[in-house]
Amino acid sequence: MGSHTGSDELDFDLEALKQKYAFERDRRIRTDADKQYVPSAEDFAGYYESDPWTERAERDPIVEQIDLIILGGGFAGLMAGARAREQGVEDFRIVDMGGDFGGTWYWNRYPGIHCDIESYCYLPLLDELGYVPKQKYSTGEEIFEHCQRIGKHFGLYEKALFQTEIDSLSWDEDSERWNVHTDRGDRIAARHVIVALGRYNRPKLPGIAGISKYQGATFHTARWDYDYTGGDMHGGMDKLADKRVAVIGTGATSIQVIPKLAEDAGHVVVFQRTPSVVAPRGNHETDPQWAKELKPGWARERRENYDSVVSYREPNDIIKDWWTELPSRVVPQLRPDMTLETVERIREIEDYRINNELRAHVDEVVHDPETAAKLKAWYRWNCKRPTFHDGYLETFNRDNVTLVDVSSSKGVERITEKGVVADGVEYPVDAIVFASGFEITSEMRRRYGIETFTGRDGESLYDHWQDGVKTLHGFATNNFPNLYFIGFYQGGVSANVTSMFDDQATHIAYLIGEAQRRGIKALEVSAEAQDAYGNWMAENAVDRSDFYAECTPGYYNNEGAKMVRGQSHIGEVYKGSINEFNDMLAQWRERGDLAGFTTSE
Ligand code: NDP
């Protein structure tokens, strides 16, 4: 990481850089914004919906009454199950479309897969399970195993209904339960429902002309076809030795995939529309002595430190990686009497400095100056998701790797029966890998995949939230009793999502536990409490719309289209750190009066 020289003397031309950023942004804006992507199910008739990892097992439909149903068995659902058990909730189910727990980490098994948030922060329940990750940044394999470890430890496997999708959820006024119907014919009447459906469940495909005409092998990174490539998550894709493989997309996934493909494939052609910011990774094995000396509570302390540092609250950075680098440079320069403008100016300067250093790093690593120029990112830190790797840039020094810049045509031009066309040149390939991301910001109904979702008086949740999400504390909404949400809705957030899921699951499990202990049949947020919270959030939410308006398009900024407050990819976000938000929730729980909820017994 670079040295920090303070913000008073500028050693670069900030205005010129700003203009360059604006130029690069403007030439990427597409008027079709997020309409440029095609819904995966429609064009590829179920291919991307199918499960390469588990054979479908038939089972009889279940008809039952239970206390709780959890939708989703990724980290959010696992945390919900674990925390519900701790609250004494025993009679519950977890439903997931996959064949095991893991969610994102179940589906994504592409070669080179790692998590780029520090494993000691990212893997939840480390203290409770007595597990210390093997490396500072875990492999996908280790993370998936940890999901299974949580499932086993908390007895969640016996609660699981895998390979099952929810068809409908409707509140029944008479029984004060949710009627849940699944595609397996299950009829479950659940008192409480936790929606723990993640953001990466639907692979996204670019709507490139001819995409369905291609005759070679093709798959999305979240459905890696090892039958075709050979090998596994570690590489060793021996079947690719004589193959030409195209990769479309250069985001966080691709950055991990491309070095592995380059090791094994005859030739790799990378189609890049916007370069990622790629900072050095610096992964290392966990020091056994350090692991031995960890004190109880260590993982929570680390997670809180991460969140305080990235929220510009804490100068003492114990994580020390590129996520914490920008705040670690900024915070020591802050003084209590500074105006917001001055703080923003310091942040901007340090942001430009970091990116200057990373662009210089590209020149140091990549031998061919033309290729190096194409790999440099021209936008601010966090305009698009930063990425981290120790071998990605080096990969472009290999003879069997070609980088094709498709920025001028705002994406790949066309796909033919034989390959990919860019700037009028056809690149024939044996396989196309789509590293094109997920439907993170598409319509809620599509992402949930639940056609009918109705609360009191048959009101649809999708209509209820048509003008934006309305909740109390981000977890529950009026007219939908006994229904709770985990994820990005309206409250404190963390980029370390598993930690945020844990905090949310803890709060929701408390609500359900209290309902059970007090014999409450229906626990519902009052309209007044919801409005009051909405007004409070309007005063206390971050508004980064000006920042994102100047950013290169991507899912962070609605592909450059106008942003509506509260409808960003991370919902409406509380301006303080998630630690502060959690403190507020803990105080609310301590008061024990379930303030803001109405109850029926
Ligand atoms: P992204 O959405 O980040 O990237 C999609 C890529 O496809 C972009 O490079 C995009 O270009 C490109 N693309 C889209 N359409 C076209 C087109 N028509 N022609 C050419 N290129 C095109 O998806 P990822 O799967 O990489 O990452 C998704 C998210 O998953 C990340 O942002 C991150 O949050 C998470 N992730 C986390 C990891 C971790 O370690 N924790 C690892 C991997 C993913 P453009 O940028 O120009 O739109």
Shape call = globular
Name the bound molecules: NADPH dihydro-nicotinamide-adenine-dinucleotide phosphate
CATH superfamily of the largest domain, please?
Answer: FAD/NAD(P)-binding domain
Low-confidence stretches: 1-5
- Please give the share of residues in helix: 25-40%
Count of all domains:
2
Stated plainly, the CATH topology of the largest domain is called FAD/NAD(P)-binding domain
Tell me the fraction of residues in β-strands, as a range: 15-25%
Mean pLDDT: 94
Radius of gyration: 24 Å
Q: CATH top level of the largest domain?
A: Alpha Beta
Number of strands: 24
How many helical elements? 21
Alpha-beta content class: alpha/beta
Distance between the termini: 59 Å
Q: What profile does the largest beta sheet have? A: 8 strands, mixed
Description:
By secondary structure, the chain is an alpha/beta fold. The protein contains 21 helices and 24 strands. Strands 2, 3, 4, 5, 6, 7, 19 and 20 form an eight-stranded mixed beta sheet that branches. β15 and β16 form a beta hairpin. It is globular and about 70 Å long. The structure holds NADPH dihydro-nicotinamide-adenine-dinucleotide phosphate. The site of NADPH dihydro-nicotinamide-adenine-dinucleotide phosphate has 27 residues, from α9.
